[in-house]
Design brief:
The protein is mainly alpha-helical. The chain has 11 helices and 4 strands. Helix 6 runs parallel beside helix 8 (146-172).
Length: 303
């Protein structure tokens, strides 16, 4: 589904920054943003999507803008995201009207503080700028040492623990979670679980935990270790499918990692339900050819 961005184009001088100052109109990204006729292309882009069905797609300017940034800088998809997160000029280029540093707990504290009953209470002190600076000091290093990474993680966990404590205090003093929108409420739940997981891994000096969350916006995604050159870890749904008479059946889909060979028996039994008999032969790749699976097929006369 595609929803047209009805917001008027924001001039560079009106782009909101979290600090004093304005974007320079002579910056290359600001100049390039004026050259591209975003609105003219958007209508053609919108035709690729349904107007009523499916999850809303990103705006044309955000989609094309991110692609231009990636190609112009010659960087990976992941690095493109990081660059956009850190650079207000790039955020302006993809169509945002204000700088977003994605510090979710800080925004939740701001929202709760505005709705608290006792207006005389001061907003809890936070360290968003210091936390961001500490994060970037390590994130911008190509290969930080394990000691540096661990020290950086400890700092970020302390910042999050402090913010979550402030949120509990504000709620105890009369503010309610009703003032949060659905997205903020979901983020609060996810962040609390992420903090628990990361703190456990830090305390126990572990690199993994069951059902580990790696994305605040998509908490269902799980990292899948593949061991491939250049992409040791992949993210996405893993599926197990079977084909019968040119029809493809999606037998299983999961965001968690699983061994496809364990699905062979249930897939063959599903085939029997469709047709009333077992198949004469089964065509699979080597991962399915375990001793147990071959013996199971042999007992049923399946080649």
């Amino acid at each position: 589904m595609y929803r047209k961005d009805e917001q008027p184009r924001t001039p560079a001088e009106e782009f909101k920054l979290p600090f004093e100052g304005k974007l320079s109109e002579e910056n290359r990204w600001v100049i390039m943003a004026q050259w591209i006729p975003w609105e003219e292309f958007e209508a053609e882009y919108a035709e690729l999507f349904s107007s009523v069905m499916g999850a809303p797609a990103k705006t044309f300017r955000m989609a094309l803008g991110a692609l231009i940034i990636k190609e112009k800088l010659g960087i990976s998809d992941r690095e493109t995201v990081e660059q956009i997160k850190e650079n207000p000029y790039l955020q302006y280029f993809i169509g945002l009207s204000e700088y977003r540093n994605r510090e979710q707990t800080e925004k939740i504290i701001d929202s709760l503080h505005k709705k608290r009953h006792d207006k005389s209470e001061k907003k809890p002190r936070t360290y968003r700028k210091k936390a961001r600076k500490d994060y970037l000091e390590v994130a911008k290093q190509r290969r930080p040492s394990r000691k540096k990474r661990r020290k950086a993680v400890k700092k970020q966990l302390q910042y999050i623990k402090r913010n979550l404590g402030h949120i509990d205090q504000i709620i105890a003093n009369g503010a309610t979670l009703d003032c949060l929108n659905n997205k903020q409420y979901k983020s609060l739940l996810v962040i609390s679980e992420v903090y628990r997981q990361q703190q456990w891994m830090f305390d126990n000096n572990k690199q993994s935990i069951s059902d580990r969350i790696v994305s605040l916006s998509q908490p269902h995604i799980r990292p899948i270790v593949r061991g491939k050159a250049g992409t040791s870890v992949e993210f996405g749904a893993k599926l197990s499918a079977s084909c019968l008479d040119e029809y493809v059946f999606l037998d299983r889909i999961s965001w968690d990692n699983f061994n496809e060979s364990c699905d062979l028996k249930t897939q063959i039994e599903a085939f029997k339900e469709y047709t009333g008999h077992y198949p004469e032969s089964v065509h699979v790749d080597k991962i399915y050819r375990t001793r147990d699976n071959r013996a199971w097929c042999k007992d049923r006369g399946i080649r």
